[in-house]
Protein: Broad specificity phosphatase PhoE
Organism: Nesterenkonia halotolerans
Amino acid sequence: MQRRDTKDLRRSAQSVSTVHLVRHGEVHNPQRVLYGRLPGFGLSDLGHQMAQGIAEHFHDRAEAGRPVHLLAASPLQRAQETVAPIAERLGLPVTVEERVLEAENAFEGLSEVKRQLRNPRWWPLLVNPMRPSWGEPYKSQVSRVLAAVKDLSDQAVAAHGEGAEVVIVAHQLPIWVTRLWAEDRPLWHDPRDRECSLTSVTSLHLGHDGVESVSYAEPNRELLKDAANLPGA
């Protein structure tokens, strides 16, 4: 999928499609484990509340004439539990999309990662933060997410015409680096600077030449103050 030049990153009156990348809700994780792709990490009570809230957000959009035509999610438990209320509220089936999985990470399974990194055994993994050397390359994450975005967008447009909308429930890091790519920014970043809160919506507006623009929303902003947010999770 192509990215238009920065000077052209503006939304046209009618995009060919819009793909909303939704981050999952808060996870029950009292030990603050960097859970990555590990099984068994489902939503907390607050996370389920967030999932209901994001379902209402897309239902309200549908009532206003902006329906979702295709729904997909990462196979990980937290993403599936987030997408379930959306599917129920909109009456749509869910496509399981492996290409939007959380990034691979060598620190997966560790708790209190910042403290653990004081141990010299982990230092060889920190030699190249721009790749990053501790996990899946940022470029690889962008490539697989964009492939999923294009395929799902093409399916929605083929079935429903231009202006079709797709929702994909995924994970913070793959969503964030995809946004960085779309906005022609370096993929390397400080995890604390990510604008991708729990159940946030990062929307890619696609034209015939690729990604035209990006918009961002936090429909559950009022719930975020109570959330435990682990960077990179």
About this structure: Confidence is low (pLDDT under 50) at residues 5-13. The CA atoms of residues 101 and 221 lie 24 Å apart.
